[in-house]
UniProtKB/TrEMBL annotation, chain B:
PROSITE patterns: ABC_TRANSPORTER_1, ABC_TRANSPORTER_2. InterPro entries: AAA+_ATPase, ABC_carbohydrate_import_ATPase, ABC_transporter-like_ATP-bd, ABC_transporter-like_CS, P-loop_NTPase. This is Monosaccharide-transporting ATPase. It is a peripheral membrane protein. Pfam families: ABC_tran. It is found in: Cell membrane.
TrEMBL record, chains C, D:
Pfam families: BPD_transp_2 (PF02653). One of its GO terms (cellular component) is plasma membrane. The keyword Transcription does not apply. This is Ribose ABC transporter permease. It comes from Promicromonospora soli. Keywords: Cell membrane, Membrane, Transmembrane, Transmembrane helix. The keyword Membrane applies. It is a multi-pass membrane protein.
Length: 305, 501, 328, 328
């Protein structure tokens, strides 16, 4: 990615003076993506660049996202941040970006292409294995279930896969009896979790793979009056989830560091615009948090309301 | 063994037989709901008989559907229109028979054929016009043209003239006479006895789903036919002596001044007095319906409408009804009925707010009123909760009339009020309207049947081309006078019969 | 006057009875589905599970009640889903942000629903927009406004005492209030549809709008009223949703409109208008929720669940058509 | 024979001409929107961006073409979105998994679309299911099957030489094939709608189904044909989508049906049936894509974009209604 070519390297963007970084994410109305946006905005203020942020409604809308990416390219930004819903579908556009001389920073998940100068992401497989590790410790043995948030996206699949793999390899006495998906919708996740609880009255734990799923599970446990009898493990944060952990309804959850993810993405983009070297992979990290460490400054900093 | 056909709760036809001879016009008459249309639908393959057989030129015939009936040479003009409003006239006529080249429809050829057909029949319609732009009479003409576009041996016409004025009826009769040949025949269903007299060779009478008799037209008096239809002697009423004092001297209830619409009406002005029946006569398209629609605010117009001396702003029919003006449309299917709802709901529709208590609709009242109306108008229906779609044409018309009788407006505008209603009931309705006027209601009767206008009206307004060409007191009016006023604008006849040249 | 009244003697059944019979029979599909799952899974008939099904029906069910009115006129309401969300969010603003009293907040939520309905109604009546377009636009506007107003963050009711009891409490022990509210709303909707001018005119307009207008009904005004009534149900759904989640989730709602409309249509209401029953809508909503629940209880893989639901809907509606065909 | 025909005299313009005029005027809304954005953003009128808009229109546009036929009959097709996905996935199975020749795979994709249409048509015609229900069920079944068949993972065409060129190549330099295919499909759809029996009967059925049947048209059979035609367009959309993404994404598709139907309705086709124009549908699809693109180019925050799109749709359709009202 270098600044040669017609217009691509010139300071473009809406303002015309500040460098302009367009971020195309996987979503925009979920709390997680809003936190990424916040990190990006922080960096933008700090580094004096202009940032826009958008993403499709759900994490299945690969084509919508490509159209967004296309529009973003047409706005002639100085750099692009891109969280690919499909790691291959955007390859032609990566080439397009390269030919226009616009550097690309991948975030959240990678792209099957040499074009992105770096990838800022959480290792979802490792993160969900961490969730599994805690589940195994807390449950010991018996039946557990998973409420997934998305059956087809890479993230959605990895959050289930990493968890399942860990249980299979490290906790043979635990059985995953069911995995249902409910689109991250709290109400639908609650209904799904209740149905599973009904079918498996001796269930000992449920893992929800994102904020909506996890809160839905908590709701289900509350509504079936099984509070305390069941180990609930969640993912991401948000007020409802942190409250549930404080109240003991949820044993704990994995949090990524979305703010850092957004921040690092923009920081890397600015570095690329200025022609500086960037690390090929930037790990934005993840943490396990529960009642005991929820108020640690290190954790509190990465949790969003 | 005759033909039988039942519907839930109704035995529409019970052991009925008719025979149509080569080269004749057979009239089929009977009261509303006698089963005429049902019989015609059996011949057309729309219904299958429960029992009985049909033969065509000696060979057994049982059309499984309308198309098969067409192929057998049976062509039908149904009482209810079967038109596609969004398609053009030509597209409607040739639906299912589109000329094609390389599987593409040739609309130019379609229009040419339709044009030729209209020329042959003397029907002044534009083949390229969408049917939704046509008046009821225009739609009826399309149906007629469509039926005649087939190479038919048997032509069935179920009340084809109900929406037509005399000039078009003359055209139609010429068409029928042209059609009849030694290898063809016509079955003609009508409630208009003069027409039956004029056009038919024999008359078959149905009553209550049963066969009554077949009589040669030339040797039968109308009185006898009517007696056979209703099963007793019936006095056909004459216009009662004009009420005294002359209604035209009472106070004006509705005054219309300078009513003008962009499309047709020019400066229409008239007064309607209390207790008066005002007739509106004119040819098809003269604008009588337009006057009514303009008054009730269904169409945009300029001009002044005063009710009891006070100027009123009528922006929509709801305003009109609020001011005591009700309008019964000539197009009962489109503007009259809730076809998929029952008699009770139809009858209650205009009067609903008056039939509530504490905001709740009193359905018992509605049912009582509906029963009353069913009795009063002799509506033939298995129950007041029958869906109106399943009623015979004439009975549907009675339901619409009942709706307005229940509403009890001071001014009632009735547009072709007896369309499709049998002779007996017609007289009942005439009596009813006359007694309403006697009670002090004011009524405007728009009708294409001059005898009807002459029978009912105190005064007659004649229209031509959107203008009022004259107002006649009934005593002075003759059919001839009216026709002259109705064709005031010279050679501009809407439909001219072939021999007029 | 003639006295020929062969008519009345030809009525074998009283219509009233027949209609009741029909509606009772409409349960059949639901009963078969229930029977099947009870047989297939020992857990299905537990009261806890039945309660779960009812609870899952409540929110979509309330939306479907409102949609029934609009569909009765021959229209369609695509704004029920995100409209419901906007009502939740506004309830959140009233209660959690502004700290208004509970009753005021709840009424406020309903009022927002009525306002959504009012705008839909005005657009349909006076701008003569097709209902599909008017409510599609409203669907987008409501979705956008929910996000703008909430700042794309959930609004929590944790500090609003008693709000979660609204839907989650059990006035009748064992039966969550959400379900109670749904049934009460259904009863009201039933009366409104069949016994008030609003309902009657909705059906008349759906049956034949032009004839209704010529009969002296101010169709435009009544259409607005009908959409406002639908909006009130949307508002109620929003409040119940917010109470159930004890938070207003601005991102939710899209897709609920299809579920609600599906419930209405499965219940036998015709999208062409003129025919609608509230009992049908309730049953339609129950069928949808029961199917989803039953298949989950049986641990059918998610992807097959979709296929199964699709097929069962076809069968259920076809059975209903056969049954009605026989009676007619 | 008289030649004075009052009826003709009152029809000033030939129907054909007027309709053409109307369609040309329908561009107005689009032109205004285009004009506004060109003024508002310097990047908007770049060929690259216009190309982007056209590309974004292509897939939904092709689906909308098919939906136009169903809507012309007075029906609705909710299965275009996930049906399209199933066609992508099956194309993937044919080409990537089974390694069939390119042409066979593409025709196979279309055939799957036709099969979806066939099932919809049979359900609507012979089981007499309301189109809403039949296609809703198909929407679910297709979604489920896409996931089942693909094993919930995308199928990549990386090894299928030339497949991505299908949509991504540029036969006419500067214009992606996807756009070319869309325009070609629109031309074909236009001819089919206005010049073949399929189209004529679709409009006729939508205008008055009973009358069409009584006129001797085998309505049930033709409805099946019409749904199959719609299905073929769904299939084409699936192939183009797969080629554009160079992969079949099984999770995609839900929600596209609303966009497609919206494009049709914005284009002036009535959901009551009987009235439909292909040019309208194309314009409708372009309006939707242009709006979304323009607002993005202007960097309007995403939540406000929704609100703006909703309002502009109301305005555009209202302007269209006013214009048509004046002419009538
Ligand atoms: N589809 C139907 N379902 C139920 N009843 C029907 C149906 N069609 C007709 N009927 C009933 O059958 C009887 C005969 O109806 P039909 O239409 O043949 O009468 P008609 O002689 O044509 O009367 P009109 O002069 O009023 O047109 C009527 O009582 C009518 O209510
Ligand atoms: N809904 C309509 N749309 C368009 N044109 C119409 C409509 N109704 C009537 N017209 C046309 O307006 C003209 C005036 O018709 P109108 O109905 O007022 O005449 P009329 O005197 O009542 O005669 P009739 O009812 O016998 O046709 C006719 O030429 C008719 O074709
Ligand atoms: Mg009849
Ligand atoms: Mg008239």
């Amino acid at each position: 990615a270098c600044g040669e070519g017609d217009g691509g390297g010139e300071p473009g963007g809406a303002g015309g003076e500040k460098p302009y970084v367009a971020l195309v994410s996987k979503g925009f109305q979920h709390q997680f993506w809003q936190a990424v946006k916040q990190g990006a905005d922080d960096a933008a203020a700090e580094l004096d660049v202009e940032v826009t942020f958008e993403g499709p409604e759900t994490e299945t809308e690969v084509e919508k996202q490509l159209t967004m990416l296309q529009t973003a390219l047409d706005k002639n930004p100085d750099a692009i941040g891109y969280a690919a819903l499909d790691s291959e579908a955007s390859i032609p556009m990566m080439t397009d970006a390269e030919s226009r001389g616009i550097p690309v920073i991948a975030f959240d998940s990678g792209v099957e292409s040499e074009v992105p100068v770096t990838t800022v992401s959480t290792d979802n497989l490792a993160a969900s294995a961490e969730a599994a590790k805690h589940m195994a410790e807390l449950v010991g043995s018996g039946k557990i279930a998973i409420i997934g948030h998305d059956q087809t996206s890479q993230t959605g699949q990895q959050r289930v896969e990493g968890f399942t793999q860990y249980i299979e390899e490290n906790a043979p006495e635990i059985e995953i009896v069911d995995t249902q998906y409910a689109a991250g919708d709290q109400l639908k996740s609650a209904d799904a979790a209740k149905a599973i609880l009904q079918a498996h009255p001796d269930l000992k734990g449920i893992y929800g793979t994102n904020e909506g799923s996890a809160i839905g599970v908590v709701k289900a446990v509350q509504e079936t009056g099984k509070s305390g009898k069941l180990t609930v493990i969640g993912f991401d944060s948000g007020k409802a989830q942190t409250d549930a952990i404080r109240d003991g309804l949820m044993a704990g959850a994995i949090t990524q560091d979305p703010i850092k993810m957004g921040y690092e993405t923009v920081k890397a983009a600015v570095a690329a615009i200025n022609g500086e070297e960037v690390e090929p992979v930037i790990d934005s990290g993840f943490y396990w948090y529960d009642k005991t460490n929820i108020d640690d400054p290190e954790i509190a900093a990465v949790l969003y309301e | 063994m005759g033909i039988s056909k039942s519907f839930p709760g109704v035995r529409a036809l019970d052991d009925v037989h008719i025979d149509l001879r080569h080269g004749e016009v057979l009239a089929l008459v009977g009261e509303n709901g006698a089963g005429k249309s049902t019989l015609m639908k059996l011949l057309a393959g729309i219904y299958q008989p429960d029992a009985g057989t049909m033969e065509l030129e000696g060979a057994p015939m049982s059309p499984a559907g309308p198309r098969q009936a067409n192929e057998l040479g049976i062509s039908v003009i149904h009482q209810e229109f079967h038109l596609m409003p969004d398609l053009t006239v030509a597209q409607n006529i040739f639906i299912g028979r589109e000329p094609r080249r390389a599987s593409l429809i040739r609309d130019d050829e379609l229009e040419r054929r339709a044009g030729l057909l209209f020329e042959r029949l003397g029907i002044p319609l534009d083949p390229r016009q969408p049917v939704s732009h046509l008046s009821v009479a225009g739609q009826q003409m399309v149906e007629i043209a469509k039926a005649l576009s087939f190479d038919a041996r048997v032509l069935i016409m179920d009340e084809p003239t109900a929406a037509l004025t005399e000039t078009e009826v003359a055209t139609l009769f010429r068409i029928v006479r042209d059609f009849v040949s030694p290898r063809t025949g016509v079955i003609y269903v009508s409630h208009r006895m003069e027409e039956v007299k004029e056009i038919s060779d024999r008359i078959t009478v149905l009553r209550d789903g049963h066969y009554v008799d077949t009589m040669p037209t030339a040797e039968t008096a109308t009185r006898q036919v009517i007696a056979a239809m209703v099963g007793r002697q019936l006095e056909v009423g004459v216009r009662p002596d004009p009420a005294a004092p002359d209604p035209a001297e009472r106070e004006v209830v509705l005054s219309v001044r300078g009513l003008t619409t962009r499309k047709l009406l020019k400066d229409v002005s008239f007064d309607l007095h209390r207790g008066e029946i005002l007739g509106f006569a004119g040819l098809m398209g003269a604008g009588r319906t337009e006057v009514a629609r303009a008054i009730i605010g269904a169409d945009r117009s300029t001009g002044v409408v005063e009710v009891k001396g006070k100027r009123v702003a009528v922006r929509n029919p709801a305003d009109a009804v609020r001011n005591g003006i009700g309008y019964l449309s000539e197009d009962r299917k489109r503007y009259g009925l809730l076809l998929d709802q029952d008699v009770v709901r139809n009858v209650m529709l205009s009067s609903l707010p008056g039939m509530t208590r504490a905001g709740f609709v009193r359905d018992l009242d509605g049912r009582r009123v509906a029963r009353q109306m069913v009795d009063q108008l002799a509506i033939r229906t298995p129950s007041v909760t029958q869906t109106t779609k399943n009623l015979s044409g004439g009975n549907q018309q009675k339901v619409v009339l009942a709706k307005w009788l229940v509403r009890d407006c001071d001014v009632l505008i009735v547009d072709e009020p007896t369309r499709g209603i049998d002779v007996g009931a017609k007289d009942e309705i005439y009596g009813l309207l006359t007694s309403l006027a006697a009670q002090g209601k004011s009524i405007i009767v728009i009708s294409s049947e001059l005898p009807e206008v002459l029978r009912l009206a105190d005064r007659i307004v004649v229209m031509c081309e959107g203008r009022i060409t004259g107002t006649l007191a009934n005593a002075d009016a003759t059919q001839h006078d009216i026709m002259e006023l109705a064709t005031r604008f010279g050679a501009d006849h809407l439909i001219t019969t072939g021999d007029a040249e | 006057m003639t006295t020929k009244t062969t008519a009345t003697k030809r009525t074998p059944t009283r219509f009233g009875n027949r209609q009741q019979l029909q509606q009772i029979l409409a349960f059949a599909g639901l009963v078969v589905i229930f029977g099947f799952f009870s047989f297939a899974s020992p857990y299905f008939l537990d009261w806890a599970n039945v309660k779960g099904i009812l609870l899952a029906t409540a929110v979509t069910g309330i939306m479907a009640l409102g949609a029934t009115f609009v569909i009765a006129t021959g229209g369609i309401d695509l704004s029920v889903g995100t409209g419901m969300t906007l009502c939740s969010v506004m309830t959140g603003v009233f209660l959690a942000n502004l700290g208004l009293p509970l009753v005021v907040g709840v009424l406020g939520g309903l009022a927002v629903g009525a306002l959504i309905g009012l705008l839909n109604g005005l657009n349909v009546s006076y701008l003569r927009l097709p209902p599909f377009i008017a409510t599609l636009a409203m669907m987008m506007v409501a979705q956008g406004l929910s996000l703008v107003i909430s700042g794309t963050k959930p609004i929590y009711f944790s500090d609003v005492a008693g709000f979660d009891e609204l839907a989650g409490g059990e006035l009748i022990p064992g039966l969550p209030n959400a379900v109670l509210i749904f049934f009460a709303a259904a009863a009201i909707a039933g009366v409104v549809l069949s016994k008030t001018l609003t309902g009657r005119y909705a059906l008349s307009i759906g049956s034949n709008e032009e004839a209704t207008a010529i009969s002296g009904v101010d169709v435009r005004r009544w259409k607005v009223v009908i959409y406002v009534v639908a909006g009130l149900f949307t508002g109620l759904a929003g409040v119940v949703m917010a109470s159930r989640l004890n938070s207003a989730q601005p991102g939710l709602g899209l897709g609920y409109e299809l579920e609600a409309i599906a419930a209405v249509v499965i219940g036998g209401t015709s999208l062409r208008g003129g025919k609608a029953t509230i009992l049908g809508t309730v049953i339609g909503a129950l069928i949808m929720a029961t199917l989803t629940n039953g298949l989950r209880i049986m641990s059918i893989p998610q992807e097959w669940q979709k296929v199964a639901v699709g097929i069962v809907i076809v069968l259920a509606v076809y059975a209903d058509i056969l049954r009605r065909g026989k009676e007619a």
